[in-house]
Specification:
With about 325 residues, this protein is α/β, with parallel strands linked by helices. The chain is about 35% helix and about 10% strand. It has one domain: TIM Barrel.
């Protein structure tokens, strides 16, 4: 028993768990060699049975077009992931549903289907056309990260090393996301871009999968100033399981490293502004967290570190739930 006499499994089962990033759909696009996400898989990190076993109630599925920017058409690659989600939903409608509105999110229950939210990770699939953002919105996209690591038509990703902020197109995308009820996501964006988004967005924004730079000096992690600014704008930061963003030391990252980042984010942003974004199926996570069903280990870890059940629930998902309820369209 921990200090609060709460069984971690019980608390976890009664919490709303919201994971703001996975690359799972990319592993399901190939009808022959792709993973069957209705089955408990031997490969990768996430599928419907493992999400259920891990108590995940809402999950953002990135429709990331892939790394091969020279040969692939990002629009069709992204659409293939959207299609993989719809195929999955058609096969298991009682297990997964698409969240389009604030009401859809509010209505999710622990027993009912898991709420899937579609996201773009980089606006390459828009091919510089704002009309395609509206098309992706019609298909259900409700979270948009402006960039992955390189430069695109909207902004520069963290690998570019420039001090350029958003392009005129990038600014239009932020405004259109605000109008349409799409969450803007600053993970992967360079510092000047993050600053521009925070200045321009009329709604809170999130960092779906980023850790604290103060603990691990990686360009994908956020400085304390950025963490504070996102929180002050009402946003939430999703601590991520990516080993390279957890520790810069030459060793395996651990669950304790993740808890250290959560502690730091809570210290800087406040407990209302911290959540979880695993990057399952897109990263090498710590061994204690290398499969969806291991999610309750985080709850046990937070209780062990003295978080109250109430604060633990905020970090597990209530914070992201709150900010998405604020930003998603009403109907
Ligand atoms: Zn990513």
């Amino acid at each position: 028993m921990n200090a609060f006499d709460v069984e971690p499994q019980t608390l976890h089962a009664h919490s709303f768990v919201f994971d703001t990033h996975c690359d799972t759909l990319g592993h399901a696009v190939d009808p022959i060699h792709g993973r069957d996400l209705t089955q408990w898989g031997q490969k990768g990190h996430l599928d419907l049975p493992r999400m259920r076993a891990g108590g995940i109630n809402a999950q953002i599925f990135a429709c990331f077009p892939g790394f091969d920017r020279l040969n692939a058409c990002p629009t069709s690659a992204s659409l293939a992931r959207v299609e993989a989600f719809y195929t999955l939903m058609a096969r298991a409608p009682e297990q997964i549903t698409l969240v389009l509105t604030a009401q859809d999110l509010a209505q999710l229950t622990p027993q009912g289907p898991i709420g899937g939210i579609l996201g773009l990770e980089g606006v390459e699939p828009l091919a510089g056309q704002l009309s395609l953002l509206r098309t992706f919105h019609r298909l259900g996209v409700r979270n948009v990260g402006l960039t992955w690591n390189p430069r695109n038509a909207a902004a520069d990703g963290v690998e570019v090393g420039s001090s350029f902020g958003l392009t005129p197109f990038g600014r239009d995308v932020v405004a259109a996301c605000n109008d349409l009820g799409i969450m803007v996501d600053v993970s992967h964006l360079n510092p000047a871009g993050v600053e521009d988004v925070l200045r321009l967005s009329r709604k809170p924004v999130i960092a779906s999968h980023s850790n604290a730079r103060a603990l691990c000096d990686h360009p994908r992690n956020l400085t304390d100033d950025q963490i504070r600014a996102i929180a002050q704008a009402g946003g939430v930061i999703g601590a991520t399981f990516v080993s390279e963003f957890l520790t810069s030391e030459d060793r395996e990252a651990t669950l304790d490293d993740l808890l250290d980042h959560i502690d730091h984010l809570v210290q800087v942003a406040g407990v209302e502004h911290v959540g979880l974004g695993s990057d399952f199926d897109g990263c090498h996570p710590p061994q204690e967290l290398n499969s969806g069903e291991k999610y309750p280990a985080i709850t046990a870890g937070l209780l062990r570190r003295g978080y109250s059940p109430q604060d633990t629930r905020k970090i597990l998902g209530e914070n992201f739930r709150r900010v998405f309820l604020e930003v998603l369209p009403r109907k």
